Amino acid sequence: GKEIQIAIDGPASAGKSTVAKLVAKHFNFIYCDTGAMYRTLTLKAMQEGVELTNEAGLVKLLSTTEIKFKPGKPDQKVFLDGKEVTTDIRQPDVTNNVSTVAAIGSVREELTNRQRQIADEGGIVMDGRDIGTTVLPNAQVKIFLVASVDERAKRRFADNDAKGIHTPLEVLKQEIETRDYKDSHREIAPLTQAEDAVKVDTTPMTIQEVVDEIIQITSNKI
Ligand code: C5P
């Protein structure tokens, strides 16, 4: 289509969703958090006792799973089969299990289809791991957002603190590294920078600086 697509990929806790939401707001585009979709399926599998490596079981579960985003304040809310799970999907047990579910090819295939349907609805900012490489390969703007692991652990620590989650900094660092390793080394659609993506290292940048840079890059393409 002629609608603008902005793909933002990168490792865990690089600030993708924070930045993506603000860029979407600026252009009045839809924002799609694809990580939330993998998290929501993971949460449901854990609740229903479906083994996280059981491909057939997960595909069957996903076929009767509705994942919806609804506008909310301050951020959009996530619904699983009509029930709000916005904070549940950010809990450490989901975070530490999601990469296992996300490595399964047929799960990715179905969620990729759903993500493309959302993108068909209009101008979009989509964040994840494989948006520029796989989900929206024709996106006009592709950003690969990175930051040092120390900086990302610090940011996650502050986020967690605000939510009342108290995982030590060193543990967070280890969890981030483990998740990045799994996400980058899986067989299907691993985390990798698209050839035509612009790398932005946010380590020394403020959120507003990152947002402004992406708006600038996008404005040059419109
Ligand atoms: O972005 P977020 O950290 O919420 O993503 C959670 C997990 O979902 C990632 O660690 C990854 O395993 C998976 N994911 C993915 N592909 C995407 C988005 C997320 O595999 N496009």
UniProtKB/TrEMBL annotation:
Pfam families: Cytidylate_kin. GO terms for cellular component: cytosol. Keywords: ATP-binding, Cytoplasm, Kinase, Nucleotide-binding, Transferase. It is found in: Cytoplasm. Residues 6-218 form the Cytidylate kinase domain. GO terms for biological process: nucleobase-containing small molecule interconversion; pyrimidine nucleotide metabolic process. ATP binds at G10, P11, A12, S13, A14, G15, K16, S17, T18. It catalyses: dCMP + ATP = dCDP + ADP; CMP + ATP = CDP + ADP. SUPFAM superfamilies: P-loop containing nucleoside triphosphate hydrolases. The keyword Transferase applies. Its EC number is 2.7.4.25. CDD domains: CMPK. GO terms for molecular function: ATP binding; CMP kinase activity; dCMP kinase activity. It is an enzyme of class 2 (transferase). Belongs to the cytidylate kinase family. Type 1 subfamily. This is Cytidylate kinase. It comes from Secundilactobacillus malefermentans.
